[in-house]
Amino acid sequence: MKVEIDQKSGFCFGVVNAVSKAEEALQSNDKLYCLGDIVHNGMEVSRLETLGLITIDHKKYFTLKDCKVLLRTHGEPPSTYEYARENNIELIDATCPVVLKLQQRVRRAHEDMQQQQGQVIIFGKKGHAEVKGLLGQTGNRAILVENEADLEQIDPQKPLVMFSQTTKPLDDFHRLSAKIQERAQAPTDIKDTICRQVANRVPRLKIFAAGHDVMIFVGGRKSSNAKLLFAVCQQANPNSYFISGKEELDTNWFTGHNSVGISGATSTPQWLMEEIAEIIRKI
Ligand code: SF4
Questions:
Q1: How far is the CA of 12 from the centre of ligand 1 (A)?
Q2: Percent of the chain having pLDDT more than 90?
Q3: What is the pLDDT of residues 201-223, one digit of tens each?
Q4: Which atom of ligand 1 is nearest to the CA of 195?
Q5: Cα–Cα dist 146/172, whole Å
Q6: Which 8-state DSSP code applies to residue 187?
Q7: For 2-9+198-281, which CATH class?
């Protein structure tokens, strides 16, 4: 069986940076909390938890004081930083620089739009951590749109600036922004803020998935990016399977086939894909 790992898959630079910040901080004996899963990959979270990382939710965070907390790549709203300042919490900020820059742009756009009686629109997934961080820059006054039905919330008579969550599909962003522009009767400023670490993987992955008999996609079930990239695999290759760990492999998938491709999301660790490749080679 020929097994090949997609060389362009696995951690993006934002996740590499967050994981190495966590590993570095865990070398001291201090307790280290992480606000939310450090990556949307249960196996990597467990690995870091065995090194001492303690994953907490926001409810727990707002009870802490005098400790160290790591902020993951998705970013946080200003209220998280304010609470840390007031409660002697040392933050290890691993917010991805791409997300940090987007937060600043959203904040500035909100200030501008307030002066012009305009609107800030965020295209993103309701409840997603990055989206909460972006909405927080506008005091939760930006309009979140996920689909066409949500466009009813936008006032076509008022100017608007639109941004996107970094991990949304480019096609969806273009379709929705075109609808917004069609309906608008005031100036619109559409800003494509999708991270190319994700978007650029799509065309390459299509070719990679089509070039193998069977495609195994490794990702966390909570990862938006994993869902998006797996859908790309399915379109290019009907023999595509999504797994989160080696125990989900089914030997029947490989019967009568000679080549297997393995790919993963921006939150999938390389060691996990290698472990899975090794098992498939032995089938
Ligand atoms: S996908 Fe892009 S924005 Fe998100 S963490 Fe990776 S590099 Fe940063």
A1: 6
A2: 93
A3: 999 999 999 999 999 999 999 88
A4: 2
A5: 9
A6: -
A7: alpha beta
Cα 99 to averaged position of ligand 1 atoms, centre (Å)? 7
- Ligand-binding site membership of 74 (annotated): yes
Q: Is the CB of 137 under 6 A from ligand 1?
A: no
Q: Is the CB of residue 12 below 6 angstroms from any atom belonging to ligand 1? A: yes
Q: Is 67 flagged in the annotation as binding?
A: no
3-state secondary structure string, 216-276? EEECCCCCHHHHHHHHHHHHHCCCEEEECCHHHCCHHHHCCCCEEEEEECCCCCHHHHHHH
Q: 75, 133 in Cβ contact below 8 A?
A: yes
What's the pLDDT at 1? Answer: 87
Block residue for tokens 């060389």: 7
Ligand 1: centre distance to CA 98 (Å): 6
Q: Is 98-195 in the same CATH topology as 2-9+198-281?
A: yes
Averaged over 67-92, what is the pLDDT?
97
- What are the residue numbers of the active site? 130
Please state, in angstroms and as integers, the Cα–Cα distance from residue 277 to each residue in 1, 192, 213, 268, following that order: 10, 36, 15, 14
Is it the case that residue 29 has pLDDT exceeding 80? Answer: no
Q: Where are the domains of the chain?
A: 2-9+198-281, 13-95, 98-195
* Mean pLDDT of the chain, nearest integer: 96
Confirm whether residue 212 is marked as ligand binding.
no
Q: Which CATH class is domain 13-95?
A: alpha beta
Q: What is the pLDDT of residues 150-191, one digit of tens each?
A: 999 999 999 999 999 998 989 999 999 999 999 999 999 999
* Smallest CA separation from ligand 1 atom 2, residue: 195
For ligand 1, whether the C-beta of 62 sits within 6 Å is: no
Domain 98-195 has CATH 3.40.1010.20: yes
